[in-house]
Amino acid sequence: MMQSVKKVVTGNHATSYGAKASRVEVIAAYPITPQTQIVELLSEMVASGELKAKFIKVESEHSAMAAVIGASATGARAYTATSSHGLLLMHEMLHWAANARLPIVMANVNRAVGTPWNVWADQNDSLSQRDTGWMQIYCENNQEVFDTTIQAFRIAEQVSLPLMLNLDAFILSHTSEPIEMWDQDEIDEFLPPFNPQWKLDIEDPHSFGGLTTPDWYFELRYKIQKAQEIALSIMEKVDEDYFKLFGMRYGLVEEYKCEDADIILLVSGTIASTAKDAVDVMRQKGLKVGSAKVRVFRPFPKERVRMIAQKARKLIVIDRNISFGSEGIFFSEVKSCLYGEEYRPPMYGFIAGLGGRDVLIKDIEGIVEYASTNPPKDIIWWGVKV
Amino acid sequence: MIEIRWHGRGGQGIVTASEILASTAMKEDKYIQSFPDFGPERMGAPVRAYTRIDDKPIDLHSQVYEPDIVVVLDPTLLETINVAEGLKKNGILLINTKSSKDDIKKKVDFRGKIYVLDATTIALETIGRPIANICAVGALSKISNIVKKENIIETIKEVMGEKFSEKVVQGNINAATRGYDEVN
Amino acid sequence: MDPGVVSCHGCGATAAMRFVLKALGRDTIVVLPACCWSIIAGPFPYSSLKVPLFHTAFETGGSVASGVTAALQIKGKKATVLSWAGDGGTFDIGLQALSGAVERNENFIYVCYDNEAYMNTGIQRSSATPWGAWTTTTPQENFKSEPKKNIVEIMVAHRIPYTATATIAYPEDLIRKLKKAKEIQGSKFIHILSPCPPGWRSAPEKSVKLTRLAVQARIFPLYEVEYGRYTVNMKLPQIQVKEYLREQGRFAHLTEENITRIQENVDHDWSILLKKEEMST
């Protein structure tokens, strides 16, 4: 029986190891900076026989998603990885995968979108796909990337919807951190083989996706929404089971020092990680600040966010993204889920870190200071040089 | 937390140096992060790598601006960039060079502790290639005490043992040991 | 071109661009889909090219160029539209747009500088990677086992006015071909072999020599196809493929048997090429 192994790995390799531990069967991927190491390692593991899977070296990301759709529809556990423009090129097929109710898992390295070219951390790529029906999780460190990859398969296969896990370009993808990789037997216990009820099978022939009239289509969409709604409780149960086996627990929203906080920061990705240090620094200075990492974005954890909002005198959202013509995307979601609540704290929407601009402890301190001394505002471009 | 910045050129192994140091620190129950300059790397272009070492888990995920230690693997960089930028006043600067400490002091904008080492020559003598990175890691352990020499040797065996021959691994161990012994 | 490009030592693509722009002149607009040259061109706010340059998405070399050409036509303006793409953006992800553009016989020159893998993202295989080569996605034991896609024949099959191969080792030949292409109306496709020292594991100072060896070994024959008529430009004394292969670490693992197979395929392809020349005259 193997033990758990501690290894220093980059975020990219963390998801490769996660996919391997999940015994993925078909991988189809196309290289794009900064995701390439994910597929290179998987390619090596398949070549050496360490991972028994088929690796299709497709000629574009559109084909990568199309290929994993084909594989998943045939009953194989399928995985892919991409970033930025690669994700955007898949867009049409992202809809297809979710509407086909296929439990594909994809690692997306959050990278800015052009033009102009920019390879650094930014969430516009994944967030602009938020309507496709994919579940979305945002990771803050490499251990979480490894764990979330494994959890993703179980969640996706129970919900019958695909899941995208996100990690910040370079800040996680290329940063080496120690992770613990659990015992394979225990992972196998947590994640049994993929065994879908419906698949392409000559022994049990069915037709998938034929022309569907308005008489039927509506109900299919209703079912997808319902699936996303129960996904929240499924994710919580999966989290609980994972904790029992491996001692790691992540939740939908992770609170840090929010109990007695006056100001609460709602953050995601690596900004959430840095925010914990910033909270500590500010607490030492006597400020009652807390941070809450919104880990799951789709389905949006409305109840948890409402509960956190109750605690705060002011809510600050930091978005490493923007929906042009509107506002920061996490900000929008938070604001809208508080509609109708009796108590709605004033909210501040900060846009920061686009295109990989660094977000430091002192930036977060500055953001809190601004919010402490200014009226609420929907969009504040932190550090913009104009 | 200790933050280290490494300077070199593409192909000189500064990322490996940072990773070996980080893995060694992990053996000593420390928490670590190791990362390169973020962006496309071109052979021969100036690049940097960073290491963070702490007694508790590292949540900080921003860049390194004020390192405690700076290691320069390629002395030609002294002509083109300020290697001491951001280096804390009470920090340490280690430079791979044939020049003397006094000559170096004239070239860098830093009044703190400076150490020199001809790591390239040691590398040629121990591993047969002018790749000074492992030698520098050995030297770093002597001047900073952040990791123990024996643990560096163990890490070299583990990390390099998988891909390289006995001879290469031993050569690197010798490079690190001589770096430790000869840094000035 | 201005000095100060950020390519690797010995990059074939940099020399190629220099010769191509020399041939085409300043009245050229460059369309640049994602490839090594996206970086070599220089980061904002710099550009190493003295002509107008439009960066675009990976798969759109053919389609964006079509738009630029159409706009020039409707505005009554004259300029040479040059799509400058790597093998990834030509053979693989960009094939659809390229096929579409040349099928419509859009008036532009498409140059594919071929370093035989996705080099900009770190040496992953493309369909231009030759049989037997190491890449990060075709590691040692599982070297590339599919033959190199013949992009020139694909272009010829589209019946375009002009298709040619060229290398940096024979710059007069390259320049002649680009100047010729400039004078032709319709779609022109030029395939340039472009050594990549980090990806080919070759010595940076040998890039020019490598392309010469490729021509002499008949691995990369220099020829033109004008409206279906083949002309083989250089019938040099043949050298054995192993003289070319052994200069590159990406072929270091090949056995005698592998090399014999490559030699046989090269000889076969060469004889077919000569027959095509004969038949089309």
Q: Which helices and strands occur, and which strands form pairs?
A:
The complex is a heterotrimer of chains A (386), B (184) and C (281).
Chain A: E1 5-10, H1 11-21, E2 26-28, H2 36-48, E3 54-56, H3 61-73, E4 78-83, H4 84-89, H5 91-99, E5 105-110, H6 124-127, E6 135-138, H7 142-159, E7 163-168, E8 176-181, H8 184-190, H9 214-246, E9 253-256, E10 263-267, H10 269-284, E11 289-294, E12 296-298, H11 302-311, E13 314-319, H12 329-337, E14 347-351, H13 361-373, E15 380-381
Parallel strand pairs in A: 2-3, 2-4, 4-5, 5-7, 6-7, 10-11, 10-13, 13-14, 14-15
Antiparallel strand pairs in A: 1-8, 6-12, 9-11
Helix pairs in contact in A: 1-2, 1-7, 3-5, 7-9, 10-13
Chain B: E1 2-9, H1 14-27, E2 31-36, E3 46-54, E4 69-72, H2 77-80, E5 92-96, H3 101-107, E6 113-117, H4 119-126, H5 133-144, H6 149-161, H7 166-182
Parallel strand pairs in B: 1-4, 4-5, 5-6
Antiparallel strand pairs in B: 1-3, 2-3
Helix pairs in contact in B: 1-5, 1-6, 4-5, 4-7, 5-7, 6-7
Chain C: H1 12-24, E1 28-33, H2 36-40, E2 53-56, H3 61-75, E3 80-86, H4 88-92, H5 95-103, E4 108-114, H6 151-157, E5 162-167, H7 171-183, E6 187-193, H8 197-200, H9 207-216, E7 223-226, E8 229-232, H10 241-245, H11 256-280
Parallel strand pairs in C: 1-2, 1-3, 3-4, 4-6, 5-6
Antiparallel strand pairs in C: 5-7, 7-8
Helix pairs in contact in C: 1-7, 3-5
Largest sheet of chain C: 8 strands, mixed
- Order of strands across the biggest sheet of chain A? 3-2-4-5-7-6-12
The shape of chain A, in one word, is globular
Low-pLDDT runs of chain C:
none
Overall strand count of chain C: 8
SSE order of chain A, one letter for each helix or strand: EHEHEHEHHEHEHEEHHEEHEEHEHEHE
Walk me through the structure.
The complex is a heterotrimer of chains A (386), B (184) and C (281). With 386 residues, chain A is α/β, with parallel strands linked by helices. In chain A, strand 2 (26-28), helix 2 (36-48) and strand 3 (54-56) form a beta-alpha-beta unit. Chain A has helices at 11-21, 36-48, 61-73, 84-89, 91-99, 124-127, 142-159, 184-190, 214-246, 269-284, 302-311, 329-337, 361-373; strands at residues 5-10, 26-28, 54-56, 78-83, 105-110, 135-138, 163-168, 176-181, 253-256, 263-267, 289-294, 296-298, 314-319, 347-351, 380-381. In chain A, the strands form 3 sheets. Chain A has a 7-stranded mixed beta sheet, with helices on both faces. The termini of chain A are far apart. Chain A folds into 2 domains: 5-246, Thiamin diphosphate (ThDP)-binding fold, Pyr/PP domains (Rossmann fold, 3-Layer(aba) Sandwich), CATH 3.40.50; 253-381, Rossmann fold, CATH 3.40.50. By secondary structure, chain B is of the alpha/beta class. Chain B has one domain (2-182): Pyruvate-ferredoxin Oxidoreductase, domain 3 (3-Layer(aba) Sandwich), CATH 3.40.920.10. Chain B is built from 7 helices and 6 strands. The longest helix of chain B has 17 residues, at 166-182. Chain B starts with a strand and ends with a helix. The relative contact order of chain B is 0.17. Chain C has 281 residues and is of the alpha/beta class. Chain C has one domain (12-280): 3-Layer(aba) Sandwich (Rossmann fold), CATH 3.40.50. Chain C has helices at residues 12-24, 36-40, 61-75, 88-92, 95-103, 151-157, 171-183, 197-200, 207-216, 241-245, 256-280, and strands at 28-33, 53-56, 80-86, 108-114, 162-167, 187-193, 223-226, 229-232. In chain C, strand 7 (223-226) and strand 8 (229-232) form a beta hairpin. The model of chain C has no long low-confidence stretch (mean pLDDT 95). The interface between A and B is medium-sized, with 28 and 20 residues.
